[in-house]
Design goal:
Length: about 270
């Protein structure tokens, strides 16, 4: 058996960290000596280092405590979730860094960022409308009212996307971002959303080049859209909407001779 000082030295941790882990129920001493001092077994070294590593990776104490008490299958599910969250945080930092590189001090940003930091749900309702600007706007209040009638809080104003054209009509969906797990209205569908980063641009309804400007902006910074393309209708604004393109991949950038950055091909 090892004293707390000996065990801390073996683990590369401070004794105060071990006492903290004990208070939080993460790592208990194997025994107590007759004088009340803590005693640890050599077999606990790996566990102490593992807990310390998870903390260094940004995992919360409560999540670590839950992880240690679960079976192998549940642990694998938790690890997958942690990896996804970490990937989203890393992408957020990388995008923020490259976004700042692309801004000039004398001019405002052409494109903005929107980060859905937590997993959420989009609920979609099918709609049909003639091919006019903001074709699906009229369907938004009805969908929102139906969700609220069922006690499902709506987090943002309505989203829309066009899926197809048939017989001179636009076929699409209007959707709403929610967190509730309540039963959804008939005919609607649920889309589970992982944490997502969007490049956004407020556009006039007849701005046919808006999407191209966002694509060009992302390409200049080494990013690519992930295929998630939304339009968010803006409350009280009849002639504008928010174009939202999810960001998926980035290519590494290197500083150029003028202190800026230039994208490099991936792979």
């Amino acid at each position: 058996m090892l004293t707390i000082s000996q065990f801390a030295d073996r683990c590369g941790l401070a004794p105060s960290a071990l006492r903290f882990y004990e208070r939080k129920g993460l790592l208990l001493p194997s025994a107590r000596r007759a004088n009340g001092y803590r005693a640890y077994s050599p077999g606990q070294v790996g566990e102490a280092r593992f807990i310390s590593s998870l903390r260094a990776a940004g995992i919360s104490l409560s999540a670590i405590r839950e992880f240690l008490r679960k079976d192998v299958r549940t642990r694998e599910t938790m690890l997958t979730s942690w990896r996804q969250d970490l990937s989203a945080r890393l992408l957020s930092l990388q995008l923020a860094d490259q976004y700042l590189r692309g801004l000039g001090a004398s001019s405002g940003p052409r494109v903005h960022l929107e980060h859905w930091a937590e997993p959420s749900v989009l609920v979609w309702f099918p709609v049909t409308a003639p091919p006019v600007p903001l074709a699906f706007r009229a369907a938004v209040p009805g969908g929102k009212k139906e969700l609220e009638r069922r006690g499902i809080p709506v987090l943002t104003s309505g989203y829309a996307r066009t899926l197809d054209v048939a017989d001179g009509q636009l076929l699409g969906e209007v959707g709403f971002r929610i967190k509730s797990r309540r039963r959804l209205p008939p005919g609607s569908r649920r889309q589970e959303m992982a944490p997502t980063l969007f490049a956004t641009l407020e556009c006039a309804v007849r701005d046919d080049q808006a999407a191209h400007r966002v694509f060009r902006f992302l390409a200049e910074l080494g990013f690519r859209p992930d295929g998630l393309h939304l339009e968010r209708y803006l409350p009280g604004v009849a002639d504008r909407y928010l174009l939202m393109l999810g960001v998926k991949r980035l290519r590494p950038v290197v500083a150029n001779g003028e202190g800026g950055s230039s994208p490099m091909a991936s792979e």
